Amino acid sequence: MEFLKTCVLRRNACTVVCFWRSKVVQRPSVRRISTTSPRSTVMPAWVIDKYGKNEVLRLTQNVMIPIIRYPNEVIVKVHPASVNPIDVNMRSGYGATALNMERNPLHMKIKGEEFPLTLIRDVSGMVMECGLDVKYFKSLTNPNHSLIYQAASSPYVALTASSAINKVGDLNDKNCTGRHVLILGASGGVGVLLYR
């Protein structure tokens, strides 16, 4: 059986992990899932410590940088981010029960452990670290800075527009030839994307 063998090199308080393919048997207690390398452990972020209005927002410089827990995850250093209506509603507690059930399906955590909570979901940036199963991204690839700001505002808007076209409008590439669509209020993000 082929495994990814690791070698840890230590030099001047820095640790480097090297990976290569080898036909060896790993110890069952060791589970390598990422190419984690030494890095800062904290980052700045806007967080909330309880649900409420804008006054609950707090800028902090010491949020723990997440770690890769599964081999299909990536860590992205956020450059721009966009705030969507869902983020504003979540700040007030919208979806808290569903999110907590997803985070804690067996109800084993202590109540209130979801705080501090970072709300923004639409981001764009540089992939800093990849899980071992990630094939489409490479770590530390410099993004195209002219497109990075456009990409930050796209995910929520694009999914909403796609849902409107496909689910509500029942349109797809096979049945929309020769049809006309009226888009009311095409001045916002979703409307502009639908117009295009």
TrEMBL record:
Gene3D superfamilies xrefs: Medium-chain alcohol dehydrogenases, catalytic domain, NAD(P)-binding Rossmann-like Domain
Chain ranges of the Alcohol dehydrogenase-like N-terminal domain: 71-138
Give the CC-aspect GO terms: mitochondrion
Q: Matching InterPro entries, A to Z?
A: ADH-like_N, GroES-like_sf, YIM1/Zinc_Alcohol_DH_Fams
The protein in question is named Alcohol dehydrogenase-like N-terminal domain-containing protein
UniProt source species:
Pan paniscus
